Amino acid sequence: MPIRSSALPQSANPLTSFSLAEQPQVRAAMDWFAKNLKWINDLQSALTEIPAPSFQEEKRAASVKAVFAAEGLPAQTDKLGNVIAELRGANDKECILIAAHLDTVFPADTNVKVQREGDRLLAPGISDNGTGLAAIVAIARALQAAKLRPQRTILFAANVGEEGEGNLRGMRALIDAYRTKLRAVIVLDGSGTDHVTTKALASRRLEVTITGPGGHSWSDFGMVNPINALVRGSVRFINTKIPVSPRTTFNLGQVEGGTSVNSIPHEAKLKVDLRSESEDELVRLESALRDCIATGVKDETDNARDRSKGKLEWKVEMIGRRPGGELTADSALLASLRAADDYLGNQSRIERSSTDANIPLSLGIEAIAIGAGGNGGGAHSLQEWYEPAGRELGLQRALLTLLGVAGVAPEKAR
Ligand SMILES: [Zn+2]
After folding, report:
1. Mind listing the pLDDT tens digit for each residue in 386-401?
2. Of 83, 90, 198, 394, which has the fewest Cβ atoms less than 10 A away?
3. What is the Cα–Cα distance from 352 to 196, expressed in whole angstroms?
4. Would you say 307 and 224 are in contact if contact means Cβ atoms under 8 Å apart?
């Protein structure tokens, strides 16, 4: 699908970061970050300390909404729980979306209190996506403080459902709602300034369920066992040959089943994550999983001594699917990011990964995902950390990229 161009019309503002940064209001917005680092860092810690597993983002969302409102930028919450604040542009018929996901991979009872070790902040979710959330709010506030009116309307969104089984549902809803006006999407996810994701990694998540009659480990021995069948099928699947290139991966991520050590279980479940640079490989891998489970069930049935007590049923269901896509090399959004990097003396490499940008990219809408500055590590682990030093570079980079595609309204239009 052709990617819709995010280029501003010729008559609009200059696109380069050099000419953008010469405008006093842009300069003021850029300078706002360094003067307000403590506020940004504190906001990041405060948001991180509100638990927000996927599907339970309400409290964190309410807090982001309150901060937007306090800045004089009224925000709305859509029916999924996405928080959207609008900075109206001179041309309200076109908009740019800048978004950061609210949710984390951590269960609600995880200790998310931020610990400090020198300049380092430690807490699950502090970087992914505490950094992105603090950044969208900071960018909105910097533009407000500089009284900068964009040419195109800017939508600041803190969206739900990016992680795991959230399945990008928040971004899907945002794209649905604004599709006709949307010219580009900038996703702020995690920390750093060293990369730009322009290629969306396609993935499929599947859940295998095998059920059987269940029984007593001694007296019913010999009947079909769903866990045995799952193990037989899984071992076959693990041995499936997958290509190094196009890079393709699988992960058996979660298993469940059984009720006690001395019961033949009546159910076994397995969740599997499949990813590939190639849609064809994904299709092949999904069908391999189905075949392997079918064979595992057959092996278990063939080997059961006593088939009179019932049989196995099985199914493989899709619990998540993220479409692939790619930004073209002549993208105006990518040019804007490159111009920002040049202006700021930053170097970054193109990456393929699975982010909220998958959705717009798969629909032909220009989109990138970038880190929001500073340094972070240990994403999705309890040891996750963030160091804010130098974060203003990431914030300025995001701001200039955003204004490169949103434009700055000429004085007379303000
Ligand atoms: Zn993230």
Report:
1. 999 999 999 999 999 9
2. 90
3. 9
4. yes
> How many CA atoms does the CB half-sphere of 301 hold within 13 Å?
16
CA of 129 to the centre of ligand 1 (A): 5
Angle of the 130-145 helix axis to the 24-35 helix axis, nearest 10: 130
| Contact present, 352 and 103 (Cβ < 8 Å) | no
- Cα of 186 vs centre of ligand 1, distance in Å, is 13
Protein residues with C-beta less than 5 angstroms from the ion ligand 1: 128-129, 189
Give me ligand 1 centre to Cα 370, in Å: 10
Q: What is the token pair recorded at 279?
A: 């849609």
Beta strand 152-159 with 83-87 is antiparallel
> Alpha-carbon distance 208 to 409, whole Å?
54
Ranking 7-21, 81-95, 129-143, 393-407 by mean pLDDT, the lowest is: 7-21
**pTM of this prediction?**
0.85
Tokens of 235: 């071992």
- Sequential DSSP letters for 207-275: EEEEE---EETTTTTTS--HHHHHHHHHHHHHT----TTTTEEEEEEEEEE-S-TTEE-SEEEEEEEEE
Q: How far is the CA of 187 from the centre of ligand 1 (A)?
A: 10
Angle in degrees, CA 174, 337, 60, rounded to 5? 40
Cβ-in-10-Å burial (0-12, 13-18, 19+) of 1 comes to exposed
Average pLDDT of the residues in 293-298: 98
